[in-house]
TrEMBL record:
Name recorded for this polypeptide: Aminotransferase
InterPro entries tied to this protein: Aminotransferase_I/II_large, Asp_trans, NHTrfase_class1_PyrdxlP-BS, PyrdxlP-dep_Trfase, PyrdxlP-dep_Trfase_major, PyrdxlP-dep_Trfase_small
Pfam families in alphabetical order: Aminotran_1_2
Subunit structure comment from the entry: Homodimer.
Domain Aminotransferase class I/classII large: 29-394
Cofactor requirement: pyridoxal 5'-phosphate
Annotated GO MF terms: transaminase activity
Organism per entry: Variovorax soli
Keyword Transferase included in the entry's annotation: yes
UniProtKB keywords: Aminotransferase, Pyridoxal phosphate, Transferase
Enzyme Commission numbers on file: 2.6.1.-
Family: Belongs to the class-I pyridoxal-phosphate-dependent aminotransferase family.
């Protein structure tokens, strides 16, 4: 008898489980489209040149590593504000944004969730159906009841916008609505600009709390374009939350670089909010790690490196789009009769392929092509070498 005798085995993380299965697969043609990671055309995780340049300088002038402030590197937080809200924007100039360096986008979300729980313990959380699989667990573990608003419409291969809007309309005041700022994970479908206007209007009218999750800024149409929804919430005079992740945009997955920004009414209010965010951090992990934050702050704050980063980000974005087109063409060439052009309507890393669970299982078992059971495939893991094989494999299961 041990104190852990009654501890149950938790279910495996579905995506990490898929990775383990992939690793154990002996099929020489196997392709992993399960995880949300960008690979280059050689199937390699890129190390961006802007990141390398900073790291080389760091090696030339090595520095001791003291503790960072609780809210992270000041220059990093400033750079995040500029990226999310626009460098010369009114919220930045007036100093009414409280930003903290987070442990990845996940950390930003969790610090925000912990703060919100203290602010309004009875609020409900609404996430999209479907959503990034960690949203539900994260807000649940922060103590919230999590429900869904309709989002994906499988029959029409798009968004059930009417359903989404009426769910938001029906939500009680104070409900926290988690919105994907761009590049919706897992579906790849984003709402249009005019639909964002309607969402903003409902959030304002019904006094909901918007929490925008921006994990892919720059992966859709561009840095500013992908941040456009933020500008709409600002223009409506709302106070809201934005989590940022640099995992993908800097290809710094393991460094855990992200942030949380809270737009407040005034600079004075932002000071008070920041003091509470710091308590959430202090009692969880005290302060963030130095390396990733220092790299990102230096790249964003050095004009030549910033230009290089934007170029490299643009290359990743363009390559994903190219793969979407190749996928559509390749599927048609492989004999798929179904109209698959919706794949190029989707944006960001993922495609909801419309394949059934059975088809996804067959893809895995017979062809070593790994996507999730929901039909989600990571387009950013396709390349010029594996695309034909993937298209032919899909053609055989459709
Ligand atoms: N939100 C969404 C929608 C995501 O897809 C991800 C990661 N893929 C995250 C948050 C978390 O990002 P990070 O890995 O930086 O914690």
């Amino acid at each position: 008898m041990s104190m852990f005798t009654a501890v149950e085995m938790a279910p495996r993380d579905p995506i990490l489980g898929l990775n383990e299965q992939f690793a154990a697969d002996s099929n020489p043609n196997k392709v992993n489209l399960g995880v949300g990671v960008y690979y280059d055309d050689n199937g390699k995780l890129p190390l961006l040149r802007c990141v390398q340049a900073v790291e080389q300088d760091m090696i030339k002038a090595p520095k001791a590593r003291g503790y960072l402030p609780i809210d992270g590197i000041a220059a990093y937080d400033e750079a995040v504000k500029g990226l999310v809200f626009g460098a010369g924007s009114e919220p930045v100039k007036s100093g009414r944004i409280a930003t903290i360096q987070g442990i990845g986008g996940t950390g930003g979300l969790k610090v925000g969730a912990d703060f919100l729980k203290k602010l309004d313990p009875n609020a409900k959380v609404l996430i999209s159906n479907p959503s990034w699989e960690n949203h539900r667990a994260l807000f649940t573990s922060a103590g919230f009841v999590v429900e869904e608003y309709p989002y994906y419409d499988a029959a029409k291969r798009g968004i059930d916008f009417d359903g989404m809007l009426s769910a938001l309309n029906a939500a009680p005041a104070g409900t926290i609505v988690v919105l994907h700022a761009c590049c919706h994970n897992p579906t790849g479908y984003d709402i249009r600009a005019d639909q964002w206007d309607q969402v903003v209007a409902v959030v304002k009218e019904k006094k909901l709390v918007a929490f925008l999750d921006m994990a892919y800024q720059g992966f859709g149409y561009g840095i500013q374009e992908d941040g456009a929804a933020i500008g709409k919430f600002v223009a409506a005079g709302l106070n809201f939350f934005v989590s940022t992740s640099f995992s993908k945009s800097f290809s710094l997955y393991g460094e855990r670089v992200g942030a949380l920004s809270v737009l407040c009414e005034s600079k004075e209010e932002a000071g008070r909010v920041l003091s509470q965010l710091k308590i959430a951090i202090r009692t969880n992990y005290s302060n963030p790690p130095t390396h990733g934050g220092a790299v990102v702050a230096t790249v964003l704050g050095t004009p030549e490196l910033r230009t290089l980063w934007e170029k490299e980000l643009g290359e990743m974005r363009d390559r994903i789009k190219l793969m979407r087109h190749k996928l559509v063409d390749g599927l048609a060439a492989a004999g798929v009769k179904r109209d698959m052009r919706f794949i190029t309507d989707q944006i960001g890393m993922f495609s909801y392929s419309g394949l059934s669970k059975d088809q996804m299982v067959r893809l895995r078992q017979e062809f070593g092509v790994y996507g999730t059971d929901t039909g989600r495939m990571c387009v950013a893991a396709l390349n010029s070498k594996n695309i034909d094989y993937v298209c032919q494999s899909i053609a055989k299961v459709i």
